[in-house]
Amino acid sequence: MNSSQPRAADNDARPLRLAFFVHSFPLLSEAFIINQAAALIARGHQVDLYAVWGRQPHVPGQFPIAERAGLFQRCFDPGFAGAPLTRLANAARLACTRFGGRGRVLGRSLNLFEHGRWAANLRLLHEAAMLDRGPYDAVHCQFADLAPIVLRLRRIGAFDAPVITHLRGIDITRRPRELGAETYARIFGEGELFLPNCERFRQKALALGCAPHKLGVFRSAIDLNEFAYRGARGKQRGCVRLALVGRLVEKKGVIYAIDAVARLVARGFDVDLRILGDGPLRAQLESRVAALNLREYVQFLGARGHAEVVALLQASDLLLAPSVTAADGDEDAPVNTLKEGMAIGLPVVATAHGGIPELVRDGHSGRLVAERDAAALADAIADLIRQREQWEQLGRNGRACVEAEYELESQTDHLLRIDRALIERHRGAATAAPKNESPIEAPIQSPIEAPRPAIVLGETAP
């Protein structure tokens, strides 16, 4: 199978200055953000990352792509911590050192009447201070629940650039319930463009009131150079190695994978499940394994780095993604680990949940079963074990899907087209608007003509 080739530079136009707002950095579960930032930097663009909730400890070697791209040196946070007196002293220092020529921004960050507790507790001042590295051509808000912060910063004048908000999962499924319809109405009103990572989430954004002309699907990509095609093993005998990668939270459905293994073992199948990831449900899941006498068949590997994820996928036969809709409404997008496994050539067994059916076609690149049905999950795995001669074709089909729809370089091309078109529209709106009018009040059409189909492999998914 062909592998993507990196491009040294983007020669279409001048380099762009972009800001990415994230919750925290770096996170193993958000490798797609690292991939996208690194791909843009490789083309000569500037990308600064703003970790609103702070930076995570850097373990050398855990994020090689981020290290090669210099992202740790380009990541900043508000430094908002400590007791009130500590924050007050830090705010005074920032006011003297980080707001040169931006006195109006400083004053507005302290406006209690307009910003309430965000001004009172000095949070907004700390956030505005970290944005003295601009100006930026465009700002990417990587999750919708960060948009209130990003748009508040634009309202006080901390930057003047179009805001592209990505919708990735929890921020369009669970967070609207928590933040409320009014918050999302304001986000959709002020933001220029919203990019859900699957058609499922585009429909959710429409249902929440986002204008159709502000919406377009943009898929989270993977670097195929990191996932060489191995092909399905299709071996005729021996233990079948199952892999599951993800945080140990409800929506990943790990307990159903464990129950499915119990059913397979009881039916005499020789299987081994390795679970890579950690999270709040680990103790509960380990207790379930012990209660079912599955310690010999199920192994918890804990959280690991990128290299360990690749090694596990390369050493496995089938990849599982039994995701479910959590009690709080949280859903999965087309799971990044599924893309990685499919790129390698692994057949997958997953649930018809969230955005997964836009990635996995039942019978084409794997099997899809209903959510929360351990019996159906076990049956699908058993069918694949009995029909090992199909693994190679399923693996090839999966690789072809990822190459067509989720390849990093082509998605970077797509993102740059979006950015450039939106930047030009924003500049045009700013030029046309009266001086006492915010350019964000002017209607801006989406720079993408229409969302592309969820799957482009000859037909779209139902």
Task: Write up what this structure looks like.
The protein is 40% helix and 12% strand. It is of the alpha/beta class and 462 residues long. The chain folds into two domains: 17-77 and 130-221 and 408-441, Glycogen Phosphorylase B (Rossmann fold); 224-405, Rossmann fold (3-Layer(aba) Sandwich), CATH 3.40.50.2000. The chain has a six-stranded parallel β-sheet, sandwiched between helices. A six-stranded parallel β-sheet has the order 9-8-7-10-11-12, sandwiched between helices. Helix 13 packs across helix 17 (374-386) and helix 16 (336-344) crosses helix 18 (391-405).
Under the CATH scheme, the architecture of the largest domain is 3-Layer(aba) Sandwich
- What is the CATH class name of the largest domain? Alpha Beta
Residue stretches low in confidence (pLDDT < 50, at least 5 long) are 433-462
**Major sheet characteristics:** 6 strands, parallel
Q: Please state the oligomeric state of the protein chains shown.
A: single chain
Per DSSP E runs of 2 or more residues, the count of β-strands stands at 12
Tally of individual helices: 19
Strand order of the largest sheet: 3-2-1-4-5-6
**CATH overall fold name of the largest domain:** Rossmann fold
Write down the overall mean pLDDT: 88
Cα(first) to Cα(last) distance is: 27 Å
Shape: elongated
What is the C-alpha radius of gyration, as a whole number of Å? 23 Å
The number of domains is: 2
Helix content: 40-55%
Looking at CATH, the homologous superfamily of the largest domain is Glycogen Phosphorylase B
Structural class by sheet pairing and helices: alpha/beta
Our estimate of the beta-strand percent is 5-15%
